[in-house]
Design a protein that fits this description.
Length: 162
Amino acid sequence: MTMKKIGMTLLVMIAGLFCVQSVSAASPKKVGVYVEGKISADERTIISSSVMSRISTNKDYVAFERNKDFLNGMTKEVDWQLSGEVPVSEIREVGARLGVDYVIVIDVVIKRDVTYMSGELIELETGRVIKSLNGERDGNDVSVLKALATNIAYRLLSNKSK
């Protein structure tokens, strides 16, 4: 092989490595959804579905399908983290077991005729809260739950919203 061919081969290999790195860096982050609060199973499903729909419209994130195993795992994870005994290395393992990079935790409180909703975007690898915010709306029917959940999810995932 001539020096020119060796040089071209190395250049192509290096360019390939940069392409692979770019593709992996641009891959969407997996997000799970966990809804808590003293609400019915139907209300929980409405909120969770609304958040999942909003995630699916964001190219930087991909929604992790919620199922019984995921919700059970999240319940255990939340209880475990609240105990204050979770080392960072363990949080990484939980994230890997659940198959997600991030979790959106939505907490819902309905008092009288007002719905309060708070949301956190949590990075599971570090346990760091990336963003936390809240909102409220008059009413507690399906349209209010959907609108509030969609708005919270949008603001959590948006780079523009603080």
